[in-house]
Design brief:
The chain has about 120 residues and is α+β, with helices and mostly antiparallel strands. The protein contains five helices and four strands, in the order ααβββαβαα. The radius of gyration is 14 Å and the shape is globular.
Length: about 120
């Protein structure tokens, strides 16, 4: 499935990659270079009119880290998620604090999601 994005977001996505939060850097260390069960993840990926924290195209999986930038944005986050899910994408969300203090639980959550997906779709990374 081809994922389209607003080309004006490309520069902003690059800027966000160069100014990542600590929790994004920490999680990226476990997702990059196909370290997560052999799947290729991208960070600060433009999709539609949004930029998501992490995206795996083979799994159609978005991983978001909710930190201070998400406070008081419940309605906006809901509409964003609803739109991206309408494109066939799935979400995993983790809090900034969990990524910093409970990384193993976060990684286990990602691994479990992938294993469930693989069982449902009968293939591996």
């Amino acid at each position: 499935m081809k994922i389209y994005y607003n080309p004006y977001l490309k520069l902003l996505a690059r800027k966000l990659r160069n100014n990542s939060t600590l929790s994004e850097v920490l999680l990226w260390n476990y997702l990059r270079c196909k370290k997560m069960k052999g799947y290729d993840f991208h960070r600060q990926k433009p999709i539609d009119n949004y930029i998501v924290d992490f995206f795996c195209p083979k799994l159609n999986l978005i991983i978001e880290i909710d930190g201070e930038s998400h406070e008081f944005k419940g309605d906006t986050d809901y509409e964003r998620r609803k739109r991206l899910e309408s494109l066939g994408l799935k979400f995993l969300r983790f809090s900034d604090i969990d990524v910093k203090k409970n990384m193993e639980e976060v990684l286990e959550g990602v691994r479990n999601w992938i294993e469930d997906y693989e069982r449902e779709h009968s293939f591996g990374g």
